[in-house]
Design brief:
There is one protein chain. Helices cover 35% and strands 27% of the residues. It contains 4 helices and 5 strands. It has helices at residues 21-32, 39-59, 101-108, 129-135, and strands at 6-10, 63-70, 74-81, 111-117, 120-128. Strand 2 (63-70) and strand 3 form a beta hairpin.
Length: 138
């Protein structure tokens, strides 16, 4: 990865309900295209971006901010939303589809942190360069 930090931040459109998954994914792909990362590593980051932003939309009134930062040793994705309600890991049941996005985020990212604040929460998912490079070799 490059020696300096690269970062991009999205805020909701004034007329919109929040940051869209499409804009967040495109922003992540554009920033990640500037570094040498295996495609599988990019796909992992974009999958987590999709899950966090869509969960904010579905469960928290929409994403109020999206930030992706690339540093020499790691990539960080942050999604803020409008509720302090903490995400919960769902138990699988055969009669209820879905509900596994939060588990997927934990399985893919190296670390996941949730910080509550006035007006909602921010979820931070971090990927180490070693993990992202290893993903490309599997």
């Amino acid at each position: 990865m490059e020696d300096r930090a690269l970062s991009s931040r999205l805020l909701p459109e004034p007329e919109g309900a929040g940051v869209s998954c499409e804009r967040a994914r495109a922003t992540a792909r554009a920033l990640l295209a500037r570094i040498h990362l295996p495609r599988a590593g990019v796909d992992d980051v974009v999958t987590v971006v999709s899950e966090l932003v869509s969960n904010a939309e579905r469960h928290a009134g929409g994403a109020t901010a999206f930030t992706i930062t690339v540093r020499p040793a790691f990539v960080t994705v942050e999604v803020s939303d409008r509720t302090a309600h903490l995400p919960e890991l769902q138990t699988w049941t055969p009669d209820r589809p879905g509900g596994f996005g939060w588990r997927l985020v934990h399985d893919i990212a190296d670390t996941v942190q949730v910080r509550t604040h006035d007006g909602g929460k921010t979820i931070t998912a971090t990927f180490t360069e070693k993990q992202l490079q290893a993903t490309g070799n599997s």
